[in-house]
Q: What sequence folds into this?
């Protein structure tokens, strides 16, 4: 049986951040668009995504750690053997540099490819933003407002159908984004108050000011979306 931790290239005691970092490195090499000559590239990529999804889900990881079994075994490998997937990952792991990751991220974010992926996973997961976020490469929770704008635009144009799952997950994820930003703002204010290095004061204040401006803008967007959703809901009642 395949060892999920071995495939991911992390230890069983790895933190979520370490697992996410391993995923970002590995996904660059195994993405189907980078392996067009391999007919099994898509299946391998999906299996790899599933492994990381299990390791990043607290409940599923707990089951895996306790039993050694895949909690979603019926969904995972399909016709591919675990050995094939492990061999594929070993061939590519460790060949990725930070520069290549940053380059791919710059090209992918906001591209037509990302838009098509967003549409594909919206349909696949019925608009569940939490699941979509995991499957979109080079993304994290800071991208949720951007994804929401894209989906709302697609829905208004009739390119996608609004779903109950999308509405529920949108409210949940935007609230989470707002909470994260509030914590970040608190840290920014703390850094400003505790700064004692006079030589770095100007630069530090500029950086912190820009961070705070982006955070406020983000909060405003989240508030607007949540308020709009609340008003729409109250009108229907």
A:
């Amino acid at each position: 049986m395949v060892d999920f931790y071995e495939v991911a290239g992390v230890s069983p005691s790895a933190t979520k951040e370490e697992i996410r970092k391993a995923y970002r490195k590995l996904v660059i090499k195994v993405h189907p668009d980078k392996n067009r000559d391999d007919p099994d590239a898509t299946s391998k990529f999906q299996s790899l995504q599933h492994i990381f999804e299990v390791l990043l889900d607290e409940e599923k990881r707990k089951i895996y750690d306790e039993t050694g079994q895949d909690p979603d075994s019926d969904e995972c490998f399909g016709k591919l053997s675990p050995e094939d997937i492990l061999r594929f990952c070993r061939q590519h792991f460790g060949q990725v540099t930070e520069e290549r990751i940053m380059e791919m991220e710059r090209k992918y974010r906001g591209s037509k490819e990302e838009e098509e992926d967003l549409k594909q996973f919206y349909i696949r997961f019925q608009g569940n933003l939490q699941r979509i976020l995991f499957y979109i490469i080079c993304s994290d929770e800071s991208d949720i407002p951007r994804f929401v704008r894209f989906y709302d635009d697609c829905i208004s144009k009739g390119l996608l159908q609004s779903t109950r799952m999308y509405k529920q997950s949108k409210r949940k994820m935007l609230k989470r984004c707002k909470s994260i930003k509030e914590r970040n703002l608190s840290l920014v204010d703390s850094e400003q108050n505790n700064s004692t290095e006079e030589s770095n004061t100007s630069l530090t204040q500029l950086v912190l000011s820009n961070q705070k401006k982006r955070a406020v803008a983000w909060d405003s967007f989240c508030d607007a979306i949540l308020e709009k959703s609340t008003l729409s809901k109250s009108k229907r009642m």
Notes: The chain has two domains: 1-104, 164-236. The radius of gyration is 20 Å.
